[in-house]
Design goal:
homodimer; 242 residues; alpha+beta; Jelly Rolls; Arc Repressor Mutant, subunit A; four-stranded antiparallel sheet; 8 helices; 24% strand; globular; DNA-binding
Chain lengths: 242, 242
DNA sequence: CGAACATTTGACGGGCTTCAAAAGTCGTGG
DNA sequence: CCACGACTTTTGAAGCCCGTCAAATGTTCG
């Protein structure tokens, strides 16, 4: 057996650094700086449906998704959920809130059982002083987030449901897709209703459009959480994704 | 006459610093730093309809609207304009593009005859070194822009046209509104079609909803570019604006 | 295995889009 | 300053698509 070094299991080290090394904010750091970050981190577990925070609570933490997924949402005037962000492994949340004293304006809850790494405001600010390169990363991230919101606006203002849903499927296939031969298999952490709330539609409409995609041989649905993409070219075409 | 100091007209100084002092990026600067900025600025005029830039052009400038207004937009798959930003006096554009080497992904054109102040990439980067406080302002600005995009998503995903348009009118009354007694008078730089493209609707729908607002005695329309708001309370109510 | 929950499917109604035409507005040149 | 033409806006009518409500089917998890 290769157990000689079990007391020094590389995997335990690996796991320790895990949430830190996989987010873009920190992934460029060397071993030494990485350790500085690690020491400041709290680990938390949330069960499916539990809230990370609610509107009005003071924003005090940087949240990093280590395992699982999380949604960020508000309610529209007609009482429907509007999902703004879907976060998965390596995504983070709350960084910009730490540059001002302020309160959350939306809800966040776990979509499945989820592990998070968090940094308090104090620790985060201290870190910025110790490792100034993180500042640049934050600006780059803000820029990405703006681009993605701009894209989401373009998606949700479109009247065309197939366009919206095709965009959604492509977006998710990049995050969750696993290539299996010609096909791409996606396992969603979210329900039809969540998809609908993300796209500003109803669950029935999402359901109908997915069935139609299946009828067109673009996808095959397996159970409620799995989709196999058969014809990604045609899906790209529908999504006007060049 | 009060012409003794005409050779030293305070207004000419005022005008020189104008575009610089009125944008949030620079408004906190002292006289000395302000002068550093001023020296680097180019002034440009654009006629109504002229393009500031188009997709694919390299992003090389920070744009500041000194007088007039500008729209930033893309086209949807069905060939309709989707307006992302409407900028007026004191707004600026292109700052985040200067942190990366990149190209514009949208169009920008003048909505009326417009004066702009611009800074080249080189001058902007030099300025950041000379006046580091500007960095913080940029992050604060990015945060605001994210908030406003999030709000726009909430607006455009709403099915309710009166909600969307009420939000739009309130948004504009803050920028363009002039209080006249009980009323607020707004002079739009944009057409009905532009409003529609901003809200993801058609010009007919916007037209009909404005007529309905007029019928409800919330507004009075005068010509095509002027609206007087009679009952801002009810408009706020419709916009779910607390 | 069964109950709670999620998804699918169908039928219907309403509101926005589309197409079309009329009315209004704006700018230009005489 | 007025008149004309181009353009924008308004209004009307019809059609389609999504939302809503309801019921059936499927799925998940204790």
């Amino acid at each position: 057996m290769e157990n000689q070094t079990l007391h020094h299991d590389p995997c335990s080290i690996c796991k320790e650094t895990y949430c830190v090394s996989k987010i873009s904010l920190f992934s460029h750091l060397d071993r030494e700086d990485m350790t500085k970050v690690l020491k400041k981190i709290d680990r938390r577990k949330y069960k499916k449906g539990e809230f990370l925070f609610r509107p009005g609570e003071t924003a005090e933490r940087l949240w990093i998704v280590n395992e699982g997924s999380v949604k960020v949402f508000r309610y529209t005037i007609d009482g429907k959920e509007q999902i703004l962000y879907l976060l998965t492994e390596g995504d983070f949340l709350g960084d910009l809130n730490l540059f001002k004293e302020n309160r959350y304006e939306y809800y966040s809850s776990a979509l499945e059982n989820t592990r998070l790494c968090t940094l308090t405001r104090k620790n985060f600010q201290q870190l910025l002083l110790e490792v100034p390169t993180i500042n640049e990363k934050i600006l780059a991230y803000a820029y990405d987030r703006i681009s993605s919101l701009e894209k989401q606006i373009q998606t949700v203002t479109s009247k065309d449901v197939s366009f919206r849903l095709a965009n959604f499927l492509l977006h998710f296939s990049r995050h969750f897709g696993i290539k299996k031969g010609e096909e791409i298999e996606i396992t969603f952490p979210i329900s039809r209703e969540d998809i609908a709330n993300y796209l500003g539609l109803t669950r029935e409409t999402v359901s109908r459009q997915l069935s139609q995609f299946q009828g067109m041989n673009l996808i095959i649905m397996e159970g409620n959480k799995k989709v196999r993409i058969l014809d990604i070219e045609e899906l790209r075409h529908l999504a006007a994704d060049a």
